[in-house]
Write a structure and sequence with these properties.
about 325 residues; alpha+beta; Ubiquitin Ligase Nedd4, Chain: W; Nucleoside Triphosphate Pyrophosphohydrolase; Globin-like; seven-stranded mixed sheet; three-stranded antiparallel sheet; 8 helices
Length: about 325
């Protein structure tokens, strides 16, 4: 149980409770000073490989013997991302790289009081998997066999992560099933489709970040500046998922129609002009196209035939998107 403050750590006087701005706080009458209890920052990391998530088994209280994500407190003077990577390295032996911030959650601990959990998605850069001082074991668990986790924010973050990846996994499962049934003549189906989808998924965060930056300054999307970044991120993420699902054959024209008609109705209800909405949509297309022209890590552009096919399919998709989005406004 977290101990309460009894004495002022400046003068040793007994602490009393006094209200400030309607909130009862610890107060030293001798120093005339309030003491503020702020949530402690806790970092956690999700490292997933082939639908398995890295967990560690705790060897100390609280929740000794339970599994959790690589989790720990940020230190004074330490950047929050730096703290997450340090905890990952110390608890699992893995050196990682931050991909993105996934989840922020509040949690009340009877040992430490109010905590603020920040969970990052990371990818492995180097290192060898091994348990650290704070854990008995470190291992990857299949997403469908995860044990009960020690901390509720860990469980919530894992649930959020799995939900965000379901469309991605469904796409590749569908393609893999078709690949196992090659047509007569031995030609491999969906090789180009797989590459197109992989390109979009691999560059998704980059496309979204560039789209967010563009929407924030473009004169044709002024109304989007009042929307929270997380909301805009999710909008763009959903549209990119729609493109991938359509490319994979999991979504037909009816689903595209339903999605964008609903999107048009929602934007109209929220007071967005149709010109602003269509401009924001066109900027997504722009950044998919620019990403396909940019050199990859090896200094090569996407092959010409793949770029051509991507442009052809994007034209069909966005023509449908614009039409049904407009229908949504008209309804």
């Amino acid at each position: 149980m977290k101990k309460e403050r009894r004495h002022c750590h400046y003068c040793g006087e007994i602490i009393i409770k006094k209200e400030e701005d309607g909130v009862p706080r610890d107060y030293c009458p001798a120093c005339r000073s309030f003491f503020y209890e702020n949530p402690l920052p806790v970092v956690a990391s999700i490292l997933e490989i082939s639908r398995e998530i890295l967990l560690v088994k705790r060897n100390r209280h609280p929740y000794k013997g339970y599994w959790c994500l690589p989790t720990g407190f940020a230190e004074t003077g330490e950047g929050i991302e730096e703290a997450a990577l340090r905890e990952l390295r110390e608890e699992t032996g893995i050196k990682g790289r931050i991909v993105k911030l996934l989840d922020v959650d509040s949690y009340k601990s009877r040992f430490y009081g109010d905590l603020l959990f920040l969970t990052f998605v990371v990818e492995q850069v180097s290192g060898k998997l091994m348990a650290g001082d704070d854990s008995d074991l470190a291992r990857f668990w299949p997403i469908h066999k995860l044990p009960a986790l020690a901390f509720r924010p860990n469980a919530h973050a894992v649930e959020t992560y799995i939900k965000s990846k379901r469309d991605h996994w469904a796409i590749f499962d569908a393609i893999e099933r078709e690949d196992k049934q090659p047509p007569a003549g031995g030609a491999k189906p969906n090789v180009l489709t797989r590459r197109l989808i992989d390109f979009i998924m691999r560059n998704k965060d980059k496309i979204i970040d560039r789209w967010l930056a563009d929407v924030a300054v473009a004169a044709s999307t002024l109304e989007y500046r009042k929307v929270e970044q997380t909301v805009l991120y999710n909008i763009c993420d959903k549209i990119l998922s729609q493109i991938s699902l359509w490319l994979s054959g999991l979504y037909d024209v009816d689903r595209i129609r339903n999605f964008f008609t609903k999107l048009g109705r929602e934007r109209k209800r929220e007071g967005f002009r149709i010109s602003q909405t269509l401009s924001a949509l066109s900027l997504i297309r722009k950044h998919i196209w620019e990403s396909s022209l940019a050199p990859d890590a090896k200094g090569r552009n996407v092959e010409f035939y793949m770029t051509y096919e991507l442009q052809r399919r994007m034209t069909i998709f966005f023509d449908m998107a614009v039409f049904y989005l407009t229908r949504g406004y008209e309804e």
